[in-house]
Design brief:
Order of helices and strands: EHEHHEHEH
Bound molecules: 4-nitrophenyl phosphate
Number of helices: 5
Number of strands: 4
Oligomer: single chain
Distance between the termini: 13 Å
Length: 157
Amino acid sequence: MARVLFVCLGNICRSPTAHGVFHQRVDASGLAHRIEVDSAGTAAYHIGKAPDQRSVSAAQRRGYDLSPLRARQVEASDFGSFDYILAMDHSNLANLERVCPADYKGHLGLFLDFADCSEVEVPDPYYGGADGFGHVLDLVEAASDGLLGHIRQEIAD
Ligand code: 4NP
């Protein structure tokens, strides 16, 4: 079993998008019994809330359903539960590195390291315009393809 946790700041825009997109790709590949997916935020602002309506709508236009997801905050126990903890931006990653146990054996890094693109961060769309949500989806789709290919190879080894 490979367990993947996507992390952003609020867990209402970027990481739920990654959660929904990657989960759909895992399902479509018939690997739902081998790969578990979750998401969380470094901040506590939005605990228990559904994803931002702008993220839900943008995702829905591409066939992803984010509506059942609810925000939660990253917990210390996540480092014991997840093999991949993937941050959307450098700030999220720095916050995770501060609380990551020294003996964590999994992969803690940036999600876009798995994308074949020149950008390194998924930019925070919360205070921006509608275009930002489509751009988040473009980046998340590219990185999801790369991550799934990487994990497939790992599972096959
Ligand atoms: P996310 O976006 O980290 O992609 O979920 C944000 C959501 C909420 C806030 C900031 C970013 N906020 O400041 O409330």
